[in-house]
Design brief:
Length: about 90
C-alpha cells in the first residue's frame, strides 16, 4: 500500500509540475501575443499615415498638373498676341 501511495504522490507531483510549466508557458505566450498586438497596431497606424500622405501627394500632383495646364494656356495666348504684333510690325506700309 505504501508503494502505491508513493507512486501516487509521484504522479501527483509530476502533474503539478506539468501544470506549473504549462501555466508559465501560457503566460509567456500571452506576453508575446500582447507584444505582437502592439506591433500590429503600430504598423496599422503607419499604414494609415502613409495612406494620408499618398492622398496629399496625389492632390499636390493634381494641383501641379492644373497649374501647368493654366501656364500652357497663358503661354499660348501670349504667343498668339506676339504673333499678331509681329505681323502688324512686318506689314509693309502702303
Amino acid at each position: 500500500m505504501e508503494v502505491k501511495s508513493s507512486r501516487l504522490e509521484s504522479v501527483v507531483e509530476q502533474i503539478g509540475e506539468a501544470v506549473l510549466a504549462t501555466a508559465v508557458t501560457v503566460e509567456r505566450l500571452a506576453e508575446r501575443i500582447d507584444a505582437l498586438a502592439v506591433q500590429v497596431q503600430h504598423q496599422s497606424q503607419q499604414v494609415q499615415q502613409q495612406g494620408y500622405q499618398i492622398f496629399a501627394l496625389s492632390d499636390a500632383v493634381q494641383t501641379l498638373a492644373q497649374v501647368q495646364q493654366d501656364s500652357m494656356d497663358q503661354l499660348t495666348q501670349l504667343t498668339d498676341s506676339l504673333q499678331r504684333i509681329v505681323s502688324v510690325i512686318e506689314k509693309p506700309e502702303p
